Amino acid sequence: MRNIYLILIICIMACQQHPAADYSSYLPTSQFKIRGDFNGDGNEDILYQDNIDGKGISIDSFPSHHEHDIDLIYEFFNQQSSNVTLTLLGEKGTDTLKLGIGLGLNYLNNLGDLNGDGQEEIALVVDYCDYSSVNSCQIYSLCGNRWEELFSFGIHENAFYYDDEDDFLEHEIPQFLEQKGNKWFFKDYYDDVLEEVEMQRLIIPDCS
Ligand SMILES: [Ca+2]
Ligand SMILES: [Ca+2]
Question: What does the pLDDT read at residue 18?
C-alpha cells in the first residue's frame, strides 16, 4: 500500500513539472527569410530565421493565442528551451545568431550597408515571452564570422498592430524605423517617453 502512495506522489510531481501538451489549435511560428550580401563577399546570401528546441529541432507551430492563455503559450516555449535563430544558408563557417527564448520575430529586414564596410546590416525585433509591449530594435552585422549587435533602440510593439492588413508595411516599423529615399531614420521609444523627439538619421558604428 505504501508503494502505491509513493508511486502516486511521484506521478503527481511529474505531472506538475510536465503538464500534458494538449492544445486545441496551433499557429505557425514566424519564418522570416531575407536576401543580401551579409558577409561582404560580393554574392547574395539568404538569411533565414528558425525557432529551435533544446535538441536543435525546429518548432514550426505553437498553441494559438486565439484559444489559449498567454501564460500557457510562454510555458510551451520555455519548457522546450526554445531559441530564436538566424542562419546564413549554405555558409557553414558562419556563426548562427541565437536570440534566446521567444515566439519568433516581429521584424527582420536588410537595411543595406549602413557603415560602409561592404557588408549589409540587418534590423530585427524579437517577440520575447514577456509581459511588456516595450521592446528593442537591434541592428546586427557579421563581424568576421560572428554576428555583433552594433546598435539598438527602443520601440513600442503597437507599431506591429494593424487594423487593416493593407496598412502593413513589411520593410518599416512605423514611427520607429522608416526609410526616406535611400536613407534610414529611427526614433528611440525610451527617449520619446521622456520628451517627444523627432526621427533622426540612423548611423551605426563599425565592428568592434
Ligand atoms: Ca555574401
Ligand atoms: Ca556594413
Answer: 39
